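Subject: design request, 343 residues
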């Protein structure tokens, strides 16, 4: 069941394939339904480095899917933040902030990286520095032009490369792994807002991860027969990355368009703001897990369970063709259930 709302990010040939790793991009160019969001899959081999870079037109929120990485963010006011990132942690990088990602482990490190622009721009330290004359660089650092004549010049960003040595990897990760940092948040281990027999939801929004601006990420886990109830987000688009399991979804759009489809690991789903949708775990014995990104730091939610409870039986009866007394047994929830179970 194909859909205009889905895209298999992990099945496409990455747009960047380098010795240090790969980057596959889903943006407006190849996933045309996107508006106000994009998502990249970044894989770094052991010793691989996503070069220091910045995004002129987009904030970034990354979810570590596997492995361990070291990140440094250099920000206005000479802010210098260096920290490790492990599976299940998210990291926020504001628009224009210089940052890098470095794999210090022995195995691959993988990130799902969301942006709040459908065509995020990149500027890397390699291409940008190469565009400047040696005499200007020499004057900047007080070394003279001849010093920078030894630097390798590139007409474009390297994007991904290899660390020159791994000798101090253990020391570096030990130094930084215990250091808390306001740019990162452990979403996987944060107490879930909702937890019941249908599943659980952990929220990474500005209420508990204060630096967020223009992006948020929820970790949704549905147990077998678990359902994320029919709902919509008035103030935010949603971009889902399927971490594990298989799900069935329906999106109801303006114009009475009903789109029902199934998705599996590595696929992404885009839902425009306020479009009605639900998510259902179709596996009988396995959990399903989504990283759910939004292009608002405090995404709003309206669920069907609470919505129907706001109206009288007379009003509902006129809509659904029922006598009001038939609806007396319908629970009147005063707030959304969020996650439910069909079991």
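Subject: RE: design request

Done. Sequence follows.
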């Amino acid at each position: 069941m194909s859909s205009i709302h889905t895209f298999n990010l992990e099945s496409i040939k990455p747009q960047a394939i380098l010795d240090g790793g790969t980057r596959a991009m889903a943006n407006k160019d190849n996933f045309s339904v996107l508006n106000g969001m994009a998502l990249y899959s970044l894989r770094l081999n052991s010793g691989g480095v996503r070069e220091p870079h910045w995004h002129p037109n987009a904030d970034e929120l990354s979810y570590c899917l596997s492995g361990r990485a070291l990140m440094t963010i250099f920000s206005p006011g000479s802010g210098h933040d260096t920290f490790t990132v492990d599976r299940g942690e998210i990291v926020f990088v504001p628009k224009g902030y210089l940052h890098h990602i470095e794999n210090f482990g022995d195995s691959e490190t993988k990130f799902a990286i969301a942006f709040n622009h459908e065509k995020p721009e990149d500027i890397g330290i390699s291409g940008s520095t190469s565009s400047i004359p040696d005499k200007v660089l020499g004057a900047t650092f007080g070394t003279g032009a001849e010093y920078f004549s030894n630097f390798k010049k590139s007409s474009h960003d390297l994007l991904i490369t290899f660390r020159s040595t791994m000798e101090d990897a253990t020391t570096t990760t030990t130094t930084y792994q215990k250091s808390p940092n306001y740019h990162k948040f452990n979403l996987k281990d944060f107490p879930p807002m909702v937890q019941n027999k249908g599943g659980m939801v952990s929220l990474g929004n500005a209420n508990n991860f204060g630096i967020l601006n223009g992006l948020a990420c929820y970790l949704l886990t549905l147990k077998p027969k678990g359902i994320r109830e029919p709902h919509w987000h008035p103030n935010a688009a949603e971009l889902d990355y399927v971490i594990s399991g298989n799900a069935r979804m329906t999106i109801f759009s303006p114009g009475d368009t009903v789109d029902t489809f199934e998705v599996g690991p590595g696929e992404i789903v885009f839902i425009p703001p306020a479009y009605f949708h639900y998510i259902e775990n179709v596996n009988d014995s396995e959990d399903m897990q989504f990283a759910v990104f939004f292009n608002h730091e405090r995404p709003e939610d309206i669920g069907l369970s609470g919505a129907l409870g706001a109206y009288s039986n007379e009003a509902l009866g006129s809509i659904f063709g029922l006598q009001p007394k038939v609806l007396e047994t319908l629970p009147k929830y005063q707030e959304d259930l969020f996650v439910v179970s069909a079991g």
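The chain has two domains: 6-185, 186-301.
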